[in-house]
Amino acid sequence: MAKLTSMKWNPNLMLKSDGVDDLFDKHFTEKSKVLFILGKGFDVRMNNFYRLFKNHNESLSIDTYLITIDEASLSLTQAIDDLVLKNYEDFITLSAIDNVIEKPVKIWEEEGLLRRRVGDKNAADIIHSDILNGYTDILIDISSLPRGVYFSIIGKLLSIIEYQKNIDLNLMVLVSENAKIDSLIRNEDPEEDLKYSFGFTGSIELDGEAEKPLIWFPVLGEGKKSHLLKCFNEKIKAKSSRLYEICPVLPFPSKDPRRSDSILVEYNEVLFDSFTIEPQNIMYSSEQNPFDIYMKLSAAISGYTKTLDILGGCNVAISSLSSKLLSIGIILTAFERKDTVGILNVNSRGYKVDDISNFVELNKSSENFVTWLSGLPYKT
User: Fold this and answer.
1) What band does 366 get if pLDDT is binned at 50, 70 and 90?
2) Mind listing the pLDDT tens digit for each residue in 313-365?
3) pTM passes above 0.90
4) Coil, helix or strand at residue 139
5) Radius of gyration for the chain, computed over Cα atoms and rounded to the nearest angstrom
6) Where do the domains of the chain lie, and which CATH numbers do they carry?
7) Higher pLDDT, 77 or 69
8) Which runs of consecutive H residues, i.e. helices, occur in 165-209?
9) What is the DSSP code (8-state) at residue 190?
10) Are 256 and 225 in contact (CB under 8 A)?
11) Which backbone phi and psi does 309 adopt, to 5 degrees?
12) Which end of the chain is more exposed for a tag (fewer CB within 10 A), N or C?
């Protein structure tokens, strides 16, 4: 693919498995000043990166933000609560020499009988403009963070780095990926409060924008049919005065070469009967490369923008209904085109886990990925 010079992350750098070990072994020194951000949660992958980092840098004391989520509304079972406690106890042992600051994020705000989701804004408020002072590296492990929370944190950090023109800070996003574990975590029905993610609203909801064509890119994974339909009915089709185009994105290539076919079968009725999409609108992106989906979405958006210029341009919505790894590419796309691209995020009422007893064994096959977003690789 030819280099698109206008793209912030082309060229780019992603590390996987042995490359992550080399990074943790060679990049960090006694002079490194590190802020490590991770979430307290039930996901067995919560401490994978923290443990790996400490194994390679056992004498390096770091600052750590532990994001604690008010999950009272997520219908967590006692078995899941036990997982949270076990993960937390492991973390306390690992972080014995570190400066740990727990950062609570309140998900809901209630006023009388009204309740609205404010978790994404509260997550962004954790990140202050002076957070970059003194740090050489900021690592954000999203393996056990809710989607809306890490969208806001990453977006806020990128905005501060851009505003301050800080070319020295190394910002890395970490993901411990395991499709089998993902398949055991079932999302409950979508929340009623459907909105664009804080910091990634584009201009879609502004007065005067409703007449522009809307292009929607739902990035699909398994088990999100109800979430997909909610997005369509409330935010895409509901804007009846607006022309719209739907371009589903499927994971291919993937570790399971038939995965995209299986997803198409699962969503067949919705995509072709309810949405009446054209087969040529279907896009494919590598399952394990967030920069690939970033580049493909960016190219598609550029094409639509140029074609629809005669109508005054277009607005773009992207919905992340797939893995956290691909979500990083979505964040980068929306950040780079923040004036026209919004992330349409749909949260779940809660989570259930099938076969909890198999969690630990499955975690042995988790793969570690680091997407390096600013700093050393991008200095010219």
Assistant:
1) very high
2) 899 999 999 999 999 999 999 999 998 999 998 877 667 777 777 888 999 99
3) yes
4) strand
5) 20
6) 13-183+356-378 (3.40.50), 194-346 (3.40.50)
7) 69
8) 179-184
9) B
10) no
11) -60, -35
12) C
